[in-house]
Amino acid sequence: MVVIQARSRRKPTGGRYKSTLSKRTHMIGRNPTLTKLGSTRKSKISTKGGNSKMRLFEGNNANVFDPKTKKYSAAAVKNVIESPANRNFVRRNILTKGAIIETSAGKAKITNRPGQDGTINAILIE
To answer: Is 92 helix (H, G, I), strand (E, B) or coil?
Structure first.
């Protein structure tokens, strides 16, 4: 099924809008990446305007920022502790922005969108 980012065909009251145009290429959306914990797997996708994004499908290393020393370090991601996006993402080890992860450096919070950036950036919270 095609993902379309267009106006709903239903009004807030439940009535239908008369369709004036059909699905167009510029309305196409994509399913969420749902980046998982595992050996690194990523790919490059093209977007509108000739731009591109890196999709991270699986990742196990994070760039962790330590606010005390003001330094970045690479740390291995062990598992997902908490996820504000969906509580079921914790048991599935899905990495999203705002998720609390356990790393080799300690607990950290993901500050970027791994499915659209191609990397996992986090900040230590302990």
So the answer is: helix
